[in-house]
Specification:
Layout lengths: L3 H9 L7 E5 L13 E2 L9 E2 L3 E4 L9 E8 L12 E5 L11 E4 L3 E4 L2 E4 L9 E2 L10 E3 L7 H9 L4 E5 L3 E6 L4 E2 L10 E2 L2 H11 L3 E4 L7 H11 L4 E5 L10 H7 L3 E5 L3 E2 L5 E5 L2 E6 L3 H19 L10 E5 L10 E10 L5 E5 L8 H4 L4 E5 L11 E5 L2
Parallel strand pairs: 5-6, 13-16, 13-17, 14-15, 17-21, 19-23, 22-24
Antiparallel strand pairs: 1-12, 2-11, 3-10, 4-6, 4-7, 5-9, 8-9, 18-20, 20-21, 22-26, 23-24, 23-25, 25-26
Helix pairs in contact: 3-6, 4-5
The structure holds adenosine monophosphate and magnesium ion.
């Protein structure tokens, strides 16, 4: 049995991002990770622009009481004109400073009478002018490989004329649920059968992580059928098989993996729930055998599969994202395993979340999931923790 950190390292260490592709800078780029530098295509601002509504002027012409002839109106994105001494052009925020002008007299400092404007204040050269390139120069580095395309970054790249970005291609995840007892949710109940919930839970988690999901109808506990579907599922980047990964007479997943040439890296991790997690590889495909219990499946997906997807997607540090919080009541690890306590998370007075583990904690206790917001982590070896103890939080 592996410790959590050791098992995580076995999944993540040496895992390289997928080959890059060029995608347009649109919603499909959002949240992905750059595989190449992104540089400004143009200067920003691209030309001298006014920061104010007012009049484009020659600063030397303007002092309190000076009168200037208004020779035109300049709008953002519109045409231009040339300013002669003694003249001014009405100008709107964002418009280009016309040739001949070197400052903007803001509208609040003027009085207009017909086509004559009178200044009520002076201006210095450059006043209210945003200079070409004062923000960014063409060729400037805007983002590096490994940077996530967050909304602010997308905005910066778009403004600097970047139309496409290089990002690792979208990973393909194949999800197979096994178990002869499984019924699709929403169908009539049947004796001895249970509703299948790992497809929706695990499938949603991997899709939220940006993967392309390939799903299959649930597979009964049958050796030949299991192997056949696994062989098909091995064509993607990650294969997830839920259920059947233990050692009962109806657990066919591990022998099927072996027959398909998947090499075991580890089986069993010192976590609760999720101990029977199996991990292996065939070529470049990562293969996870998830315990079928719904809580185990969720915890293992959040701890191992989402980090693997983030790494394939190009993130530098892909370890699980844990928040910090406090226990609202005493709790602790059980079975000497790092225990993920399904919890209600309530903001404390100082804003730090306080975790109240739900009464029911078994890995099959799906009812408790309905009232939970995530998991409080009680590390193995920590012993009983008092109310108020600081803990990691895993939110899904
Ligand atoms: P297994 O990992 O196949 O031993 O399954 C462990 C427990 O999880 C059993 O009680 C199964 O009935 C249940 N289970 C397995 N797969 C699913 C699933 N996809 N959805 C809900 N429960 C499941
Ligand atoms: Mg089973």
């Amino acid at each position: 049995m592996k410790d959590l950190d050791e098992a995580l390292a076995l999944v993540l260490d040496g895992l390289a991002p997928l080959a890059p592709e060029e995608v347009p800078l649109d919603a499909q780029a959002a949240g992905r990770v750059l595989a190449a530098e992104a540089r400004a295509v143009i200067d920003l601002p691209p030309f001298d622009r006014t920061a104010m509504d007012g009049y484009a002027v020659r600063a030397a012409d303007v002092a309190p009481g000076a009168k200037l002839r208004v020779i035109g109106d300049l709008a953002a994105g519109g045409g231009t004109l040339t300013l002669e001494p003694g003249t001014a052009a009405r100008i709107s925020t964002g418009a280009a400073i016309p040739p001949g002008a070197d400052a903007v007299l803001k509208v609040e400092d003027t009085e207009l009478d017909g086509d004559t404007v009178t200044a009520t204040a002076g201006v210095s050269p450059g006043l209210h002018v945003r200079r070409r390139g004062e923000d960014v120069h063409a060729g400037d580095l805007l983002a590096r490989p490994g940077d996530v395309l967050t909304v602010p970054r997308l905005s910066a790249l778009a403004a600097a004329g970047v139309g496409t970005v290089r990002v690792p291609r979208v990973p393909r995840v194949d999800l197979i649920v096994t178990g002869s007892e499984l019924l699709p949710p929403g169908t009539p109940p049947q004796p001895g059968k249970i509703y299948e919930s790992n497809s929706i839970a695990v499938g949603t988690l991997v899709q939220q992580a940006g993967a392309r999901l390939v799903s299959y109808p649930s597979v009964p506990d049958d050796r030949a059928r299991t192997q056949e579907v696994i062989e098909r599922g091995l064509e993607g980047d990650i294969l997830i098989v839920s259920g059947g990964v233990s050692v009962g007479p109806h657990d066919h997943v591990k022998p099927a993996f072996a027959a398909c040439g998947v090499e075991e890296v580890f089986w069993r991790v010192r976590i609760k729930p999720g101990k029977p997690l199996w991990f292996g590889r065939r070529g470049g495909t990562l293969v996870f055998g998830l315990p079928g219990n719904p809580l185990s499946a969720i915890v293992c997906t959040a701890l191992f599969i989402l980090p693997a997807l983030r790494r394939l997607g190009g993130e530098r540090d892909a370890r699980p994202v844990l928040g910090r919080g406090r226990l609202g009541e005493p709790a602790g690890p059980s079975d000497n395993r790092t225990t993920f306590l399904i919890s209600k998370l309530v903001p404390g007075e100082d804003g730090v979340p306080v975790a109240y583990p739900t009464e029911r904690q078994g890995s099959h206790m799906t009812g408790a999931l309905g009232e939970s917001d995530g998991f409080a982590v009680a590390p193995h070896g920590s012993g009983p923790l008092p109310a108020g103890a600081e803990v990691d939080l895993l939110r899904v």
